[in-house]
Amino acid sequence: MANGKQSGAMRGSSSSDGPSAADSGSSHSAEGVLAVAGSKVRQAHQTGGHDSVETFAGSGLSQAPQTPEDRIGQVLSGTYRIEEMIAVGGMGAVYRASHARLSQPFAVKFLDQVLAKDSEAYGRFRQEAEIAAAINHNNVLQVFDFDIDKFGSPYMVMELLQGRTLDVVLNEQGALNKREILAIFDPLCRALDACHAAGVVHRDLKPSNIMVCSQADGSVTVKLLDFGISKITHDGNDGMTRDNIVMGTPNYMSPEQASGQNSDLDARADIFAVGAILYESLCGRRAFDADGLPQLLHKIVYKEPASLSEEGVPDGVREVVEACLHKKPQDRLQRTALIIAELRGAYDAQEKTPRANSGGVSVTAVVAAALTSAVVAAGLGFGLGSKRAPAVATAASAVKVAASEKPRAPRSGKEARASNKSADGYAPQVIGTASARLVSKSGRLYRGDRSSLSYWSDRGADPVTKVLPSAATVTALQVHENGKLVAVGQGDGWVSVWGHELRSETWKRKFGADAVTGIALGKGFVALAQGSKVELANTTTGKAFKSFATVEPPRGMFFAPGLENVLFAYGSHHFMMFDTKRRQALDDLNMGGHVIRAGVDEDGQDDGAHLWVEFDQGQWLIRRTYRVTRPSREGPVQMSLTDTRWQARP
């Protein structure tokens, strides 16, 4: 592809299931191939631009091509027949080719013959091919071969794509909607995460280097293109990386790139670029733009882009963009995998926010909500661990409930606070960022915010702050009932347990790569939710000793007073219970709606624990309260509905 925009003209079949690495007879691992790439480029520098020029039989050309069109009909290495030109640019041209024996379509990209004599241009061209071939990922453009034709022109053979580059998409339709944003940035972030894991920093991320390919079923496949100026971080002698030179496309480069600090660049430069591209995709205009290059670089280094709030972008989504666009690399999100995780979380949070309703609530909606509530309530009135009683409700009983019980405001029970506005009178400036997760306990405040954990003993005290195991966002924070331990879960799977004053760290451990979505501290163990499982780990050592599979990913967990051996967890639609002493799952309940949150009411525990669950159901926000008891330590848990309250969406 001559450049990103030109590549949008490519057409043909697209396959994300084809060969996944360069098919050149090499048995090197991805890391080995990347290491070899750097040495070959340096060798190319020393030999004047290319290793050798070979003569291939079978070409229909008798003399060197004078124009890009002259290559049509050429057969490369007796295998790839050039059929038509797709695009041409300053660096060379891209052609459609077919396999001489298999009739399989390919794209062939040539480096211009003049540039082929320049050692740096040739080195970057070859590096582009070798990096793309070494990164085995469905969302990175696949390169199958690299060689030099008999006229001394280097070329690479790539998969043939059908689609448009993202810049073309944005020019044609403007800002993207939620579905389009997730469909494009999810695979893009996954591709970049694979690149960074292999030690490759792209350094030239921009919409024209992101190909959006339409599939027959209506879905899209995203391909990351052009590794021509990428940096191999584990190749310390990269001769193509020099300081005091601006490398990349100015509108999307990071402040450190704009300042010419190329030798110290790492994956966080790409994260800044993703933020700039996401900004443009959300509002249809660039985050940084100016009439001249000096003015543009000044904006990138010193100025903030206009707030996306003015464009109607949800606050949570705006915060994700801002977390990518911090001027200092250490302040940004630290992995591209976290970008899409937080982006999905922000959109999910937006959907759970009550929506404005200009009209009244119909009688049909009242009856439907009451009917569903009656059915669910009937299904909850049984002893867990025993056979379920059938759920029975009639339309007549539903109407009676609707007529006699008017919607009321939900009761507010005590719960661990996770607000970013205030906590037990602490000033908002103490809480800091909107991404902070808070828990207050007996006047003490704990705050987890990205890479740090802070503690205030009272409102007038100075905070104690500790650095967490990773820079990932804090996704779960819990203080033990006795107030002596604090557990923290992060977006990349790290869990750490601390003394209540943060004087010491009991242990830290990485549980896979998925975000920890819930934490609860039991007697002698820590329960954590991650993906579609709940895991129990020893409080002292961090060693996992039991794992439960769940019907859906849990979003929160807690214990209830008087039921210390019963762990409660909730997902989007299910309420789940586990016996931590006997190490067995008790049951899960389908709540008949989208669960927003759940917790325990600490008031009035004489007749058992009181749990509450809040969820939305169409035009209603519903809060149910249950009395939960366990007559004997080994007997079933019994859960009975004591109160149901509806609130119409405002």
Please tag this protein with its features:
single chain; 650 residues; alpha+beta; Phosphorylase Kinase, domain 1; Transferase(Phosphotransferase), domain 1; Methylamine Dehydrogenase, Chain H; 6-stranded antiparallel β-sheet; 5-stranded antiparallel β-sheet; 13 helices; 32 strands
Describe the structure.
With 650 residues, the protein is an alpha+beta fold. The chain folds into three domains: 4-158, Phosphorylase Kinase, domain 1, CATH 3.30.200.20; 164-352, Orthogonal Bundle (Transferase(Phosphotransferase), domain 1); 372-648, YVTN repeat-like/Quinoprotein amine dehydrogenase (Methylamine Dehydrogenase, Chain H, 7 Propeller). Helix content is 24%, strand content 29%. It is built from 13 helices and 32 strands. Strand 30 and strand 31 (620-629) form a beta hairpin. Helix 2 (30-46) packs antiparallel against helix 3 (119-134), helix 5 packs antiparallel against helix 7 and helix 11 crosses helix 12. Mean pLDDT is 75; it is low at 1-60, 234-247 and 354-422.
